[in-house]
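FIELD: query
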Amino acid sequence: MANVYKFAWLNIAALSTGSDYEGFINEAREPRAIFGFRASFAAIIGTGSQDINRNLQGRPCVLLDGEVTLLWDKQSDLPGGGDWMAPLFTRAWVYQERSLARRTLAFATHGVFFSCDEAYYGRTSTFCAVAAALVDEALATGNAPSREQLQMEARDLLSRFDATWNGAVIDYTKCKLTKDTDRLVAISSTAHEVADSGIPREKRYLAGLWDINFISQLRWMTCEGRNTKPRKRIGTDGYVAPSWSWASIEAPVATCGAFYTDDKPIRFLADVTAADVKLATEFPFGAVRAGWVRLRGCLRAVSGSETHGTMGGTSLTDEATGENLWFASDTTEGYEMVASSAGLRKVVWVPHVLTALETMVECNVLVLSELSPDEETGDDDGTFIKPGEKVYRRLGMGNFGRIPSLFRQDKLLMAMGTYPEADEMEDIAREFVRNEVGFREFVII
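FIELD: result
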């Protein structure tokens, strides 16, 4: 599919049709309605005087003698307008077509427009040209760079790569699929193209994520968990991806980009030590049968939960401190588990990322549920999961925090590590030392 759209001379897109049975050449093709009329400067300015040639002080004003031609210009369905919500763009299978095509002639409801690799500031928003742009910038160095410059450029490339893929995930998960089992397959050609870009050179695709800065890519969440059906489990019909992947749920997701430069106020509170997937075919960017990630971090128990109002959020109570943290479940399963005493006993949370901003010191967390000993883990040959190792499934994300002047009063924030005595937030984040007491390895499937 990548070759079809990448090497096609022209791609024709029928934006306004909902199916193959509808036409896209219609009577309402003219996108612009223009009405012209003339009016005096005085009428436009509104002097408030009976004598339109006099100003507000009643003095003669030559400027008010003139007239001007005015145009009322109505445009719709043009690039940058509502066409991005057109029926065609709600279909997930079309995302690859949009991201890989070099030239597109698009028929919208009220207009026709053209886009190509030079349509946006000389660079395209497609992955092909984005990858080329990154390579161009990486090679465009005058003098031999120093080691420090190379490190900075490498971090910058990684950051832009991560931001590019995060943007693709956000756009793609807004689209709909007839068969949810196609979720990884329908974006596989785009992922393949990204892998071929060589930025960064050594990277592996793992069910919608990349093993470059994997810990940061686990920072995704959805706001539609209360209406999202539970994800399928390993070995059942309809299984799509491991719980740590955004592809495991049928909902739009938001992602948080990576911060590679040293001056950004972010610190990771857990480490990814290994990750792997079992492919459904030989194609490394397609469907998977199972997936695992091993984290090293602190597993903290939950002693209670509370729902705040009929439309409010849900909070979890940390067993060790009695402090609360907000919880956003990926699906209805998470809310059901924390609402019952039996389910709550299986729930744990893991500190993930600490962020220090001018307005907030915040900690993002992963919320997990422990698997029963008889549940399928997908590790048939026993090469990934160690004997007796704890295995969990992701339920969702959580967070807690305080304003800068009060963060030292928060028991949970202080339990995350040691903070310097500095007042500047960037210094606090930069010199923060995480608390690794109780760190252990565990697996999420």
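FIELD: remark
Residues 32-75 form one domain.
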